[in-house]
Specification:
Radius of gyration: 18 Å
Number of strands: 9
Strand content: 15-25%
Number of domains: 2
Structural class: alpha/beta
Helix content: 40-55%
Length: 273
Amino acid sequence: MPKSKQTIKIGVFDSGLGGLTVLKHLLKELPAYDYLYLGDTARVPYGSRSADVIYRYTEEAVDFLFSKGCQLIILACNTSSSQALRRLQQEYLPKRYPDRRILGVIIPLAQAAAHNNNISVIGTKATISSGAYKEEILKINKKAAVHSNSAPLLVPLIEEGLAGKTATNMILKKYLQPLKLKRIKTLILGCTHYPFVINDVRRIMGKNCEVPDPGKIIATSLAEYLQRHPEFNTDNKSAGKREFYLTDEPKSFKVIAEKFLGSKIEHIDLIEL
């Protein structure tokens, strides 16, 4: 009998629409895979919640994506990556899905920034308080000074479709000014929502500060991971399927998603976790 073709489904999870900034680059870098996007829009943002609640919400999302046949899940959410990923990898996967994988976003971004000695991170309160970025950067570069600042208002503003608006830029300047005074060489956008305002961040920080696009780094990192793990290679030769799931459908999601991804979204399924 001829060998059946292998189709691989990759789940992309975020608390809201921030994961689109990762999905966009995955679709460009690895178009042959099937992608299932899940945004927990009913409970966004995660950044101000306790570690236990973040873990529970993330586990529920992972359960759903695995139930839909995903073999690999990207936690395209820095808060979930910092507060839930390690426990999911060490406890949840061995018991429930030992042949599947969950990957986060923090290690690739930390690795990309660690060549500089003066680095800063902006993110949600939960991500910053975890110290995850500093820990990973110092593993690579012990001489690095790692500064951090939480930016809790940015996610709600971006979810409301206010990226690039005057009020958002005023708040962004307030968050970034203390870091600019420290003459930061690399600024890590430690929340996948923040690339929606990356051009404004780059303008405010100036030409002497590198502000890499997280989605591009994560997509490159996943491509390298897949090369090392051929069991997750797909036999698809053309573009795979794209599915979208939300726990609540804000009016702005479809509009923002289609504009950002540059393609029509035919259907969004509403689910309960």
